[in-house]
Amino acid sequence: MHKLSIDNFRSLDERDIVDNPYVSRDEYRVLFDIIESNDIKNILEIGVSYGRTSRNILKNFSKIERYIGVDVDEFHSFEKIPSQVTERPSCPGEFALSLNDSRFEIFLFPNGIEDLKGFDGFFDLVIIDGDHSYSGVKKDTSFAKKLIRKNGFIFWHDYDNLAGVNKFIDEYNSSDSVVFVRGCRCCYDQIFGTVIRQSKKR
Ligand SMILES: C[S@@+](CC[C@H](N)C(=O)[O-])C[C@H]1O[C@@H](n2cnc3c(N)ncnc32)[C@H](O)[C@@H]1O
User: Fold this and answer.
1) Where exactly are the structural domains of the chain?
2) Can you name the residues that pair with 98 across neighbouring β-strands?
3) 187 has which bridge partners?
4) Looking at domain 2-190, does it have CATH number 3.40.50.150?
5) Separation in Å, CA 141 to CA 53, 144, 193
6) What pLDDT sits at residue 50?
7) For 14-34, what is each residue's pLDDT tens digit?
8) Would you say residue 195 has pLDDT above 70?
9) Cα(169)–Cα(182) distance, rounded to whole angstroms?
């Protein structure tokens, strides 16, 4: 795994960001740098929750054309990690929906991403932050690879934090293409693209 320091990523400066109990400012720094430095127009977030990350991205990037957020509905069974039921939002997507921004759409499905149809090869960036079990991250990654365009990015949250996420990504990383940022709980991979991309500080 390629390990980078947070200093490789542009600082957030005066960005308009609502605090998120799930995502730190350094993790936004990585995500924002990926978006800013690459041709990213269409984003999918698996596990959109209250829509804080989608709100923060849409507020700061006018170049984003579509942002699809997926979460689970009340028929979803949290059998793999029952405690994850507490994370299911009471008002899904509310922060992003409050922007009244037509670029944002939210889908709530009983089975998560496998119920999303019609977007094969469409996304430039897929954020995986839903079911954090080993099999959940594996399934979401497999769908992400179908939904993403060539040279698009997958960004996983909760690496270096949750055992199931670590186990899957360590296996997935057999070709050593994944980038991990020290001190953050996130990593990313450019699918079918060049191995590594370091960005300049702003
Ligand atoms: C840690 S929160 C995500 C935080 C969010 N990404 C953010 O940045 O604010 C996890 C979310 O994943 C959702 N979730 C759990 N299992 C899922 C699945 N199989 N598919 C999609 N979403 C799932 C939960 O309902 C919850 O909203």
Assistant:
1) 2-190
2) none
3) 156, 180
4) yes
5) 19, 5, 16
6) 98
7) 899 999 999 999 999 999 999
8) no
9) 15
Calculate the alpha carbon distances from 31 to 74, 92, 100, 109, 135 in Å: 29, 21, 23, 25, 24
Query: How many Å apart are CA 167 and CA 50, to the nearest integer?
Result: 27
Distance 71 CA to ligand 1 centre (A): 6
Q: Probe ligand 1: pick from 113, 129, 137, 159, max atoms within 8 Å of CB?
A: 129
pLDDT at residue 89 above 80?
yes
Taking the centre of ligand 1 as the mean of its atom positions, its distance from the CA of residue 69, in whole angstroms, is 10
Q: What percent of the chain has pLDDT over 90?
A: 82
Ligand 1, pocket residues at CB < 6 Å: 20, 22-23, 45-49, 52-53, 70-72, 84, 87-89, 112-113, 129-131, 136
Helix 25-37 × helix 52-60 angle, to 10° = 40
pLDDT at 197: 43
Give the sheet arrangement for strand 42-46, strand by strand.
2-4, 179-181, 186-190, 148-157, 123-128, 42-46, 66-72, 104-109
pTM for this prediction: 0.94
**How many angstroms does the Cα of residue 61 sit away from the middle of ligand 1?**
22
Which pLDDT score is estimated for 88?
Answer: 87
